[in-house]
Amino acid sequence: MLKRIVITGAPGSGKTTLIKALEFEGYSCFNEYSRKIIQIWKEKGLNSFFKEKPEVFSSKILKGRKRQYKDSLKIKKSKNNLIFFDRGIYDVYAYLYSINNSYTFPSKLIKYNYQKIFILNPWKEIYSNDNERIENYNSSVKIDEAIKYTYRKYGFKLINVPKTTVKKRIKFIIKKSI
Fold it and tell me: Model pTM?
């Protein structure tokens, strides 16, 4: 049976770097979907799509992540039977909650069956902004708290990934996933 594994956590905590390393090692991976959306809307002149239109942005991200999940169901074979996602569907709700603590979570949600959820905690020493990541470190910490709250709310157990080298993080994730 193939296992669907989410790598989530604070912006700037190393998720994309880990996904790229896992891809390099031959694992089936789905990249962070929001980066594509952010790039498209920046070209249209909207520099902070999420902050300016959070509901519209989130609906586009949710649609893309659901498509990624459905595409993962078509995969018949993957290294060590593992498929990795740079963020999962539930991250969309976490981001909305991070900007509005009175956000009403969907109650009738189709359960997307991820087998493991790895969380990368905020890590100030590696945090940096880029073209798509505009949050400051303090916002990153707030988003991290919302992510933890949301995944637990939907019944997922979170596995904390230690702050260490990429190679050791990958080894930790693979060992805990198999």
Answer: 0.90
- Domain limits of the chain? 3-177
Give the span between the Cα atoms of 56 and 43, in whole angstroms.
17
Q: What is the pLDDT of residues 57-84, one digit of tens each?
A: 888 889 999 999 999 999 999 999 999 9
Looking at the DSSP bridge assignments, the partners of residue 116 are 5
Whole-number Cα distances in Å, 66 to 2, 6, 104, 153: 17, 13, 20, 19
CB contact at 8 A, 114 and 88: yes
Q: How far apart are the C-alpha atoms of 76 and 28, rounded to whole Å?
A: 11
- The secondary structure of the chain in percent helix, strand, coil, rounded to multiples of 5, reads 50, 15, 40
DSSP 8-state assignment for residue 161:
P
Tell me which amino acid residue 137 is: Y
* 90, two tokens: 């539930």
Report whether CATH 2.60.40.10 matches the domain 3-177. no
Whole-number pLDDT of residue 105: 87
